[in-house]
Amino acid sequence: MDKFVINGGAKLSGSISVSGAKNSALKILAATILSDQKCIINNFPFIEDTNNAIEILRNLGATVDVDKVKKMVIVNPVGINKTSLDSLLVRKLRSSILFAGPILAKFGQVEMKHPGGCVIGKRPIDLFLDGFEKLGAEVEFIDDGFRLKAKFGKLKGTNIFFPQITVTGTETMMMTAVLAEGKTILNNCAMEPEIPALADYLNKCGAKIKGAGSHTIEIEGVEKIHGSYFDVIPDRIEAGTFVVMGLATQSEIKIENCNPEHLGAFLPILQKAGARLEVGKDYIITKPSQMKAVSVVTHEYPGFATDLQSPYTLLMTQVQNQSIVHEAIFEGRLFFTDQLNSMGANIIMCDPHRVVVNGPTKLYGKKLTSPDLRAGITMVLAGMIAEGTTTIENIYQIDRGYENIEARLQKLGVDIKRITS
Ligand code: EPZ
User: Fold this and answer.
1) Checking DSSP bridges between strand 283-287 and strand 321-326, what pairing results, if any?
2) Would you call 258 a catalytic residue per the annotation?
3) pTM of whole model > 0.85?
């Protein structure tokens, strides 16, 4: 198992370019199943999760060509000849549920193992199964998985009101409804930027989707959709993570090729805490700042993103005063704080959803283990500001979401090495 070794204290300088968004590329890969022609995806992030998603497509029979230099992926879905998802690949990619809808919509049936949860939460899929049923699919539970079958061979448009906001639930029902007969209206939808991006891609392929990015999305079903090409939007979570990196190390760095608007409430919250930021159209420059604690609650977009909660919690250990970080979306996304405490932080867990952070505290290098990708990158940031050496095990979790991360950080002056065992 690879690990990272980081020596803290370096001042960073220079610029870092943001990759294409993991949480957009995964959905567009799933959406290619709906087409009957080649789909070209540019600005593609080659990371563990997207590599696994490509393997799922290949296992179904699609042809997928990749060009890591041009950062491009070409998917030809015409060869798909299977409607059951490979169980091993489903286990490796929790978001493989994304593939169920397009296969069901295109072929009238799909079978897969339950994708399972992860350390940040149980990750149920009840909202997906309810949505598929409303679109006219019969759900049959088999072993630790399920089989879906369109009752009349084809799905039928319907009204779905999500009882709670779900990002991949919204994306899945939007994709699935593209080939259903008639109109589908989705209510109480998520509004994350990856959703209008997916709708833009599908509409370029000939789908008829309106309202993506708002709480209500209308999809007019069509017979089929053709291929297209699409540029993956910048990864807003990478961008936000790098902003925290600049602030936490009191460095002036430039985060390039990002879309600051996609960060929602995150930048205003940092500025309320005293962060000095220069925000351009497609870049953010961090400046050394005297910051103070500001309490936050994670919230669906455009609120404070749950995927930026762990870097933010680390930052609050380095600023004056006390803050409360309330992780309102996932029940297991704060347990990494015990590893920050082992470095010298002073974080008190009130319950699985709330911690009190007291700052500033000096951090010391430690042996850590990355529990999930966002807590994992937070440990990398902690190692940068800690005195001494920090070792991070299980960095597969970090490689799931951050492409070639150590080389990109070394360019900024971070003393980080990957030890391959
Ligand atoms: C997406 O996960 C992202 N993943 C997550 O990013 C992100 O944290 C999350 O949205 C929230 O923004 C991808 O886009 C691949 P949800 P998703 O459905 O769609 C509950 C990362 O770090 N729920 O919006 O799975 C669920 O348990 C990942 O890149 C049900 O109860 O999240 C959670 O409490 C982590 N039943 C809440 O809804 C369901 O059927 C929101 O989950 C589905 C979800």
Assistant:
1) unpaired
2) no
3) yes
Contact (Cβ atoms closer than 8 angstroms) between residue 318 and residue 346: no
How far is residue 247 from each of residues 20, 111, 323, 399, measured CA to CA in Å?
23, 46, 17, 23
pLDDT tens string 168-203: 999 999 999 999 999 999 999 999 999 999 999 999
Domains of the chain, first to last: 3-19+234-419 (3.65.10.10), 22-218+225-231 (3.65.10.10)
Q: Which of 118, 205, 258, 350 is catalytic?
A: 118
First to last CA, the chain: 6
Write down the pLDDT at residue 122: 77
Atom of ligand 1 at shortest range from CA of 49: 15
Round to whole Å and give the CA distance between 341 and 368: 11
Spatial distance between the Cα atoms of 263 and 242, rounded to a whole number of angstroms: 12
Protein residue with its CA nearest to atom 35 in ligand 1: 307
Taking a C-beta distance cutoff of 8 angstroms, is the pair 148, 139 a contact? yes
d(CA 61, CA 55): 10
Binned at pLDDT 50, 70 and 90, residue 66 comes out as very high
Ligand 1 pocket mutation pick from 134, 168, 172 by most atoms within 8 angstroms of CB: 168
How far, in Å, from the CA of 216 to the mean position of ligand 1?
19
The alpha carbon of 278 and the centre of ligand 1 are apart by a number of angstroms equal to: 31
